Amino acid sequence: MTTTRAPRARRTARGEPGPVNWGEYAAAVHRWELITSRAAPYPTQPGRHGRPVLAPPFVEWLMGLPPGWVTAGHLELPRTAQLRALGNGVVPQQAARALRHLLDDLTHLHRPPCQPPVSPPQRDKRSRASRPSRVDSGLTHPPGTAQATPAARTRRSAPRTRR
């Protein structure tokens, strides 16, 4: 007479965790184990009704947090609160990457503008394009931009009347 084994869900509920078959994720799990210098915790734990549920220590490990960051016994958090805290948390490696990217952007914004060349460029006397722009009341206008005439300034400042 042969005995049949209970389904996996029942075996894990009885506290008989078997080896985890990570399947296609085995390489990624092994790589993360090497990076974190910790073995992967068992991904499930027995739930209230004997069915396996997600284990908070596994989520904590996936996020790269130190052991007990959320799951420490002295915190006395129920499993649902632990998962909620982990779900609302930030992966430290991703936060560090975002801050590095932000700081690089800020550093780029605060660099001094390009300095003009030390020696003035040689001007072609036949071309007007290389001539410096005119200076009007201390403001320089880039070449190719129109400068308002005094008559145009007066027209703009005068009150408009309907005809």
Give an overview of the whole structure:
This is DNA (cytosine-5-)-methyltransferase. Residues 140-152 have a biased composition (Low complexity). Residues 153-163 have a biased composition (Basic residues). Residues 108-163 are annotated as: Disordered. By secondary structure, the chain is mainly α. It is 37% helix and 6% strand. The chain has a domain at 8-107. The chain is elongated and about 90 Å long. Strand 1 and strand 2 (52-54) form a beta hairpin. It is built from 6 helices and 4 strands. The strands form 2 sheets. The protein has a two-stranded antiparallel ribbon with strand order 1-2. Strands 3-4 form a two-stranded antiparallel sheet. The model has no long low-confidence stretch (mean pLDDT 77).
Q: How many DSSP helices? A: 6
Strand content: 5-15%
Q: Which blocks of ≥5 consecutive residues have pLDDT under 50? A: none
Main sheet: strand order: 1-2
Organism: Amycolatopsis umgeniensis
Protein name: DNA (cytosine-5-)-methyltransferase
Give a quick precis of the structure.
Residues 153-163 have a biased composition (Basic residues). Residues 108-163 are annotated as: Disordered. The protein has 163 residues and is mainly α.
